[in-house]
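ESCALATION

Customer reports they have been waiting on this structure for their group meeting. Please prioritize. Original submission:
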Amino acid sequence: MHDMESVEKSVAKSLLDIKAVLLRPEQPFTWASGWRSPIYCDNRRILSYPEIRENVCGWMADIIRNRYPEVEVIAGVATGAIAHGYLVAHMLGKPFCYVRPKPKDHGTGSQIEGIVEPGSKVVIVEDLISTGMSSLAARNALVSAGADVMGMVAIFSYNFNQARKAFEDANVELTTLSNYDTLVEVACETGYVRESDLEVLKEWRFSPSTWGKIE
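Update from on-call: job pushed to the front of the queue and completed.
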């Protein structure tokens, strides 16, 4: 198994290099939720870089192989983690399914695409953990289908306290390849952000829902 600290830094550096993560403290983004944010993360960009894609999915496969040797099915969360989840399942030689945010409104009306037999041991692959709500909704859909969800592995987490608490409350083990704190550290080391931006970047993580709002 790889040294997790070096994986965290390596993934953070890759995300910055390919602009999968943009840090813009002086010109914040507005998320779909209406939150103002100095960071924007789009892990789908990883798919366009074969070497980084291979590393990221390989590390996730290694974590699953080591931590959940009895896993039977890999589940991706739609839509951001479908491709990554499939690649991880392929590396592990395991069946793959994916979970929609809600049941589709036509055909069979299913929320899970692919086969998950009741009692199957499942590990979920996710690309990004923000509040954790959509990730845990996918887990709940799998549990409702009778799956035994062993844990979740994600590429990146914003490390919000809200998400940490949600995962603890749901009793779901979460492992992430990299996270916001490591990203900010690497961004500072490589000169991607100025040291003067550090305070702003740290402040945001502690109160993301109110940060940058004009009173």
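Sent to customer with the following note: The first helix runs from residue 4 to 17.
Escalation resolved.
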